[in-house]
Structures are given as C-alpha cells and as structure tokens.
Design the sequence.
C-alpha cells in the first residue's frame, strides 16, 4: 500500500510554524521528527522501458521509503500532455513495485501552479491526439485499479 501526498506549490506568506501547541501535540502523537538532511536520488528512467523522463522529475529518498514526482513543465504551468501522463504512469508503477517505497509525493516545479490541467495548445476536438491521431483524455489513464 502506497500513500500519495499532494504537496501544492507553497506561498511562503501562508506558511507559519509559530504555533507551539500544534507542534507539541504533533510531537506527542508522532514522536520526534528526524532533522537529518534527506538524500534524493534522481531516477532518470524506469527499469522496464529505459526511456528517459523529460516531463517529470522522479526521485527516491535514500533509505527513507519516499518517492517524489515533480511535474516539470513550469513554462506551461505544469500542464500535462500525453507524454507527461505516460511518464507519470511509469513513475507510479515503478514506485508501486518498489517494496521499499511507502509514500509518493506528487508536486509541480515552479511557483505559478502545481498543475493547470491539460495543455490546451495540444488539444484537438475529441481530446489529446496520440500518434494515430485518435483523441482521448489521457489523464484518465492514471487511474489505478
């Protein structure tokens, strides 16, 4: 079982750790939180296809049981295109089959948006065309059964 965490793009004006009581109750329930630096290893491609990731950055925290997937199209506000969805599927499948991973963090690069949805510049009348010009809503392919 993998837990998926959605981490939106942060606005530093909204973040505040000044609540002592909140921190005390968290510590009471969860114990001390490790303060060591996490070492992230970039996964350039999945083991099945050896195709390099171009639309996402896929990383695993060494010895932590955490994978992180960044949608890496900040110039398009991380709008997905068919290739992005295919890469997300490959990364999620890799994390699902890696018994050392228990949590996947999904986020987007840049400060403008986590993900603005499908890239409308690539959309045709019946969705996003594949290499056979057949339209579909590719993001539905991300559903895991």
Sequence:
């Amino acid at each position: 079982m993998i837990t998926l965490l959605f981490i939106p793009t942060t606005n530093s004006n909204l973040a505040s750790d000044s609540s002592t009581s909140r921190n005390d109750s968290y510590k009471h329930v969860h114990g001390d939180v490790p303060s060591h630096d996490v070492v992230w290893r970039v996964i350039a491609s999945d083991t099945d296809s050896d195709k390099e990731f171009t639309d996402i950055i896929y990383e695993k925290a060494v010895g932590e049981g955490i994978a992180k997937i960044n949608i890496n199209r900040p110039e398009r506000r991380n709008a997905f295109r068919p290739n992005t969805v295919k890469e997300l599927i490959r990364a999620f499948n890799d994390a699902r089959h890696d018994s050392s991973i228990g949590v996947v963090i999904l986020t987007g690069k840049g400060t403008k948006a986590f993900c603005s949805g499908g890239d409308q510049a690539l959309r045709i009348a019946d969705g996003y065309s594949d290499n056979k010009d057949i339209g579909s809503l590719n993001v539905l392919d991300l559903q895991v059964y």
About this structure: DSSP finds two helices and eight strands in the chain. The chain has one domain: 3-8+39-139. The mean pLDDT is 80.
